[in-house]
Structures are given as C-alpha cells and as structure tokens.
Amino acid sequence: MTNVLIAGGAGFLGSHLLDRLLRRKDIARLIVIDNLWTGLRNNLAHINDPRVDIQQVDAERVDSVTTFDEIYHLASPASPPWYMAEPLRTVSANVLGTLRLLAALKPHGRFCFTSTSEVYGDPLVSPQPESYRGSVDCTGPRASYDESKRCAEAILFEARRTQGVRIKVVRLFNVFGPRTRPDDGRAVSNFITQGLRGSPITVYGAGSQTRSWGYVDDVVDALERFFWLEESEFPGPLNIGNDREVPVVEVAHYVRRHFPRSQIQHLDPVPQDPTNRRPDLTLARRHLPGWECKISYEEGVDRTIRWFRNTVSNLHSPKSLDAK
C-alpha cells in the first residue's frame, strides 16, 4: 500500500487534486499539509476519509522523519497580489519546501511538482514550448514566484540526474474554477467577485494581454493522468493548459454579461504584466494522448460564477493589486 503526502492540499488546485487521489484504492495513508496562507479550510470540509490526516504546517517545516512513496508539491501562492506581498515567503515555499519535501521521499518514490508558465516570463515566442528558456527578469516584481519555480525545477532535475530521483514536473497555464478565493487577485475570480459586489470590473491597461484559460477539471484530468495513471517515467517539464488564447478584456466583457450593473473600468497597466500566454501542447499530446481542455473558457466562467453564487457569502474587499 502507498503512503502519500500532498503539500498545499487546502489550496484551490491542491484540494481538487486531493479529491482525485482519494479515488485510489492503493493509498493507505494520505497526509495533507497546508499552512492556510492562501489555502482555505472550507476546501477540505467535504473530506470524510479515515486515510486522511490534515496538518497545518509550512512545506519547508514538515517533519521529514516520516517518509512517503509519493509527494505532491503545490504549496505556493500563484496569484501576484499574494506573492508580491510576501516575496521571501514565496521563495521559501518553493525552494526550501522542495528541499525539505525531497528529504521526506522514500528511495524510489515519486516527487510531483506544479511549476508555472511564469517561468517563460514575457515570452518572445508563441506558443511557448517546454524548450523555450524564457524572457525573464530575475530582479523584477514577479521574480519571487517565477524564479523560485525555476529554481525548484532545477533542484528536482538535478536530484534526478545525480541521485536517480523519480520526478514529474508540469508547467500550468492560468487555471481557474471553483474553490478560488474571493480575494485571490487573478483575473477571472477578480471579475466575478467585483460583479457579485456590484463594483466596477477592473482591467489593467487596455486588456489586450492574452491568457490561455484552463478550467480546473480539465487541468486536474491531465495531472491525474501524468502524475500516476500513465505508466511513464517521462519527468517533464510538461505544459498543461488550454491553447486557446483569449484577451483579458474579452473575459471581462463576458463576465459582465452576468452582472450588467457593473461597468468595465480600465486602470493603469501593471509593470511587467506578460503580454501573452499560450502553451505549446505537442509534448502533452504525445504523453497524454487524447487529452485536451474540453471546457471552453465561457462554460468554465459560467460554472465558476454558479459556484461563487452558491458558496461564497462573504465577499469582503479583495486584496487585488493585479490580475494574472
């Protein structure tokens, strides 16, 4: 039987991945760690499985006396307002968290890591293949996140090269959907929260910057297949996302259709906001044949709005500084 640890399991994406892990019959024990920095207890309220042990702890401070057959590291903020507010803490979660969690991995165990399209910076090529080394600024306002993700990738690939550690690394592109915090700060949740409050829907700059919006169910389908269902030792990195590119302002106008009282308001551009995001999915199609993002951003937004309406009752003022 398998012992598993998931770091960041109370987060938006981590809680969805936890649900998929709990479908497995081979797991004897599943430790969920989360410091609740950006994760929410409510994301785990539906969990009623005796195999699960939820612990409130930082990934970089987890007790490494116990070792695990599989480790899933999702313990990092992914929204600019959050990682820009506490950049050193963000670096710690990704870099020191990776080192600490590696120490908790059993020999011949598997370490799975969610990296990000942010490692490509403000890309000069589109779509972005995994071989693209990026157009990044290691001293810029987004560096705490993208550089710590790049460093964590380096740690894992060096552990694989020098110690034979089995790893799986994905680079995620703009995931959205239910269980996002109302004050998450990224574009889709920002627009929905603002609409529900009757506030202006704020777009930074002209909104011509494009993103590839991947609905969470599609993305977790890919993670499930790549991390444990497919019998492959391909380590990645592997782009996961929707390769349909949509301008931010178009999403804002789509959300506004649900909230006609809210007007679109344009604010000053955010420094170093990437102009485009689109994954090259050649490798994903090779290693996950038949997988694609089947849910359009329109349908995904509709589902997310329904979830917010039904679930989120306290729409306090968002911490929004930026929309990723």
UniProtKB/TrEMBL annotation:
InterPro entries referenced in this protein's UniProt entry, alphabetically: Epimerase_deHydtase (IPR001509), NAD(P)-bd_dom_sf (IPR036291), UXS-like (IPR044516)
Alphabetically ordered keywords of this record: Decarboxylase, Lyase, NAD
Cofactor: NAD(+)
Key word 4Fe-4S present: no
SUPFAM superfamilies reported in the protein's UniProt record: NAD(P)-binding Rossmann-fold domains
Gene3D superfamilies assigned: NAD(P)-binding Rossmann-like Domain
Record's keyword annotation contains NAD: yes
Domain NAD-dependent epimerase/dehydratase residues, every copy: 4-228
Record's protein name: NAD-dependent epimerase/dehydratase family protein
Organism: Paracraurococcus lichenis
